[in-house]
Design brief:
47% helix; alpha/beta; Rossmann fold; Si:dkey-174n20.1; oxidoreductase
Amino acid sequence: MYVLYTILASLGFFFVLKWMKKRKYCTDLKRLDGKTVLITGGNSGVGKDTAVSMAMRGARVIIACRDLDKAEKAVREIKFKSHSLNVFHMELDLANLRSVREFCKNFVQKEKRLDILINNAAMPGVLDCTDDNFSMCFGVNHLGHFLLTNLLLPQLKECAPSRVVTLTCSSYKYQKLDFQDLNYNLLPFFTYCRSKLANIYFSQELARITQGKGVTSYAVHPGFVQSGWTCHYSVLFRMLMQVIMWMFFVSSEIGAQTVIYCAVSDEAAKHSGGYFVDCRPATLRPFARDAGVAKKLWEASERLVKLV
């Protein structure tokens, strides 16, 4: 009898895990022929699976990555999975604002269009600093994408209707921004939370300033995804997280679904500035919907990246 109870309890546990990991798939089959999609960090995880979907829909896909060897390998895999040869890579280091500027200059010179920009690349909570002396999380997750989007915004407007999809995380709810210390870099997890909150404010303010100009903006929480972010930590931590991710996290293919949905869905287009989870709009905590804070962060970010 004890063995039977053990088996039943184990089955119940795995059914619960399966239910927890159940997510919606994007069912919109819209084609993207003639469109150009740019994905930061498209060499792995959610970014790579998003790139496969975009290429399968007929888009010209460009993945922007720091490591060119990994980018070349990813391009081969994306081409194989999507059966499309219209996939390319360009060098971009979001931890270096000069690299962002050079990338945008080259992109505008080489590419005639930009229809969908997917700000996917991100750093986990680490105590390192960028080349411009910002905390790695705030510098890469927010400032690098902020500068990238602003420099490419004229091209997005020219190709309207166009979209900007920025990946964030539900962990935004655990922190608020401190404008006396935007570059907070003391506790790695809290630093990460603040950067993800900044992504949400950025997406909202982008939607406001581009209203009526043909550019729509979305913040996406892809879920907690099995990915390689643990490579920045110790071997023991990586081993522990591999077990946890296997049990509770979703695959990158599933994590990409809401990103894909916001990139192609006509229904999503009605909610510019919105926060999306599981292929539908979700409610943010009240402090994360403060338009005044979003505008203040935008203006502060312009000064930090020297746009003004």
